[in-house]
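The record is passed on directly below:
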Amino acid sequence: MSKYSKQQNVQQQNAAVEDSIRAEAVYWRSKRWPQALLAVSSERGIGCSRAIIVDLDIDFPGMPRLFGLLLTADETFFRFEIETDPAHERVEGLEDWTDVTQQQNLSRRNPGTGWGKGAIALKVLRELNALPGPPSQDVGGLKLGQKFVATKLDEQSLSPDGPEHELPRNESF
């Protein structure tokens, strides 16, 4: 490997993933969701104003017109594939709508990679919704009922040598 390599450390990699998820979520929060996705989500009782789109691909060749990953306010991840009309207004077929929460990497301590993408998506959701409360599964290693306030990923919490998810008494995450 060259000394001029642009390899990123774990913190930089996690920050890039966080920025990407946040940009996608903020974009779709500021712009109207495709009507077909809005309709399918609403029919399933999902409050779209508090959910985030983690990934959305539109009109990709060989795939349904809309497909991606949605994270609901109750912290459930759904993979979806929706066939629509060309304007993405009418649902012509629902190819996939699957709860994939159990398949997400929700850990904040993955050797060599730091936070899992699912943990980062939950962090972004909580920040955007300003939802203090108990975490889902092992996110952050917090105990049920322990309050947290989402903040930017910090280098200490991402470091393989960092604390085992200990929180300062005057802060919460």
Observations:
- Residues 30 and 142 are 31 Å apart (CA to CA).
- Residues 104-158 form one domain.
